[in-house]
Amino acid sequence: MVEQQSSQRQFPIRSVVDVVRARRSGLDIALKMGFHQAEANKVAVVISELGRNIELYAGEGLITVTTYAAGGGKYIEVVAEDEGPGIPDVDRVLAGGYTTSQGMGLGISGSRRLMDEFDIQSQVGKGTRVRAVKRLR
Amino acid sequence: MEEFEMDTFNELGSMGTSTIQKLENLLLVAVPRDLTDSEVLRLRRQVLQDVRRYRSRWVLLDFSRVDICDSFFGRFIQSTAKMASLMGADVVISGLQDAVIETMVDLGMTLPNIHAVLDLDDALALSRSDQRDVWQNDSLGLEDGSFDESEWEDSGSRESPFSNLTEV
């Protein structure tokens, strides 16, 4: 499948203020693409949850928002990367209800429900990369 | 005794003006959008302080300005309600946008024991039906606001103020 890359924006995450900025931009990008307010809202919340995890566990990292068209569809992709401590038990985090912080333990498990594609690559001591994709309907 | 006593105060730094207003026995909190975590905590502390300061029996968290609600924010709602209830105040919410609600529910965020009202009118109807205020009322002749057991018994039960709503 040939992907036509139309646009990409990167958001370095070092603080919650960066997270707030990134999710606001993500909301605007999704709305501009033609996503319904409720769908754009989900993308923004996913950016927020992933950004928070970066800030909380890794201290710093990067969120990349890419929009592209492929196979007749339009997509928005959120990638959150950090070189933090990694997730020892990805399955447990995906199952939900697991938290070490002040959240609700919904960040990862809930984000997965909000998107069409969701995958996590994580290595303890090396870092984490989360990729989430939503298709325009 | 129907006139509004509206009192605007406390600017919460970057959060803008008149975030919190006192309206009768109700503390009206217009929750701003794009709050950082420290601003969220500051807002919660301000709400609790004002509950004490104004003896507010009810806190209305109005979310009509909020267009992104993540799980941290959900926890803010829950914790504020829990803390306010320990002070003797009840928290109700209003104004959540449909797009926000859809995301919250899909995310799996549940807010048990949080009552929602449609708007300020409904919130006022609820707070005005609060029986706890009856024995403080001047019409009962309790000028010093002291507790009078006979008056309390006469004034009816302590049934939930929400009973009014469910009957409709």
Which key features would you list for this structure?
heterodimer; A: 137 residues; alpha+beta; Heat Shock Protein 90; five-stranded antiparallel beta sheet; globular; B: 168 residues; alpha/beta; Transcription Regulator spoIIAA; 2 domains; disordered C terminus
Explain what the structure shows.
Chain A is built from four helices and five strands; from the N terminus they run E-H-H-E-E-H-H-E-E. The model of chain A has no long low-confidence stretch (mean pLDDT 90). Chain A has a single domain, classed as 2-Layer Sandwich (Heat Shock Protein 90), CATH 3.30.565. Helix content of chain A is 39%, strand content 34%. Chain A is globular and about 40 Å long. Chain A has a five-stranded antiparallel β-sheet, with helices on one face. By secondary structure, chain A is an alpha+beta fold. In chain A, helix 1 runs antiparallel to helix 2 and helix 2 runs antiparallel to helix 4. With 168 residues, chain B is an alpha/beta fold. Chain B has two domains: 114 residues, STAS domain (Transcription Regulator spoIIAA, 2-Layer Sandwich); 40 residues, no CATH class. Helices cover 39% and strands 15% of the residues of chain B. Chain B has a six-stranded mixed β-sheet with strand order 1-2-3-4-5-6, with helices on both faces. In chain B, helix 3 links the parallel strand 5 and strand 6. The radius of gyration of chain B is 17 Å and the shape is globular. Chain B starts with 5 loop residues before the first strand and ends with a helix. Chains A and B meet through helix 1, helix 2 and helix 4 of A and helix 2 and helix 3 of B.
